[in-house]
Amino acid sequence: MNTMALHEIVYVSLACEELTSAQLDKLLANCRAWNEKSGVTGVLVYRKREFLQLLEGEADEVLGLYRRIEDDQRHQQIYKLWDGPIAERSFANWSMAFVDQALIEAMPQAVHPSRIDQGLTDTVKNSTGKKFLLSVRDELLRRESERA
User: Fold this and answer.
1) pTM for this structure?
2) Do the beta carbons of residue 38 and residue 87 sit within 8 Å?
3) What are the two backbone dihedrals, phi and then psi, of residue 60, each rounded to the nearest 5 degrees?
4) How far is the C-alpha of 132 from the C-alpha of 92, rounded, in Å?
5) Contact at 8 Å (CB) between 81 and 11?
6) In contact, 136 and 99? CB cutoff 8 Å
7) In 22-42, which positions are buried (b, 16+ CB within 10 angstroms) versus exposed (e)?
8) What domains are defined for the chain?
């Protein structure tokens, strides 16, 4: 059996303009459709023009998608926090989980609210970014199990 190497990229970026709910919904629908076709999973956090995203899947797919994101004129100040191989997916349940301001505020254990006000980029530097995203995943799984 030939298994492909799993790869993960985590980055932050700044949207060129504040996105409306309708724009975010359209972006998410497009991301989810693309990711389902490509076998990519992950999570997108959006807060005050800032994006924090984790992409995971086969290396070629993830690296190709990240290049498309780098070329996307809707992003600026893209900063890669992590780029490397992984043993398993962290967000296998989601083609693209989404975290908004309300969910962030409901998770004071993940990041102290006063710290998040400094911005996502400052909040998630170094390994804190992955820890924050794993806290987000755990909260999403908790909420899903409560609905079941």
Assistant:
1) 0.80
2) no
3) -60, -40
4) 17
5) yes
6) yes
7) eeeeebbeebbeebeebebbb
8) 6-147 (3.30.70.100)
99, HSE (Cβ side, Cα atoms, 13 Å)? 29
Q: What percent of the chain has pLDDT over 70?
A: 82
Give the full edge-to-edge strand order of the sheet including 41-47. 75-85, 6-15, 50-58, 41-47, 97-99
- Locate tokens 């911005």: which residue? 119
**pLDDT digits over 40-64, tens only?**
999 998 888 888 899 999 999 999 9
Q: Is 146 exposed, middle or buried (0-12, 13-18, 19+ CB in 10 A)?
A: exposed
Catalogue the long-range contacts made by 121-129 (C-beta closer than 8 Å, 24 or more residues apart): 121/12, 121/14, 121/50, 121/77, 121/79, 124/12, 124/52, 124/81, 125/81, 126/81, 129/10, 129/12, 129/52, 129/81, 129/82
Q: Are strands 97-99 and 41-47 parallel, antiparallel or unpaired?
A: parallel
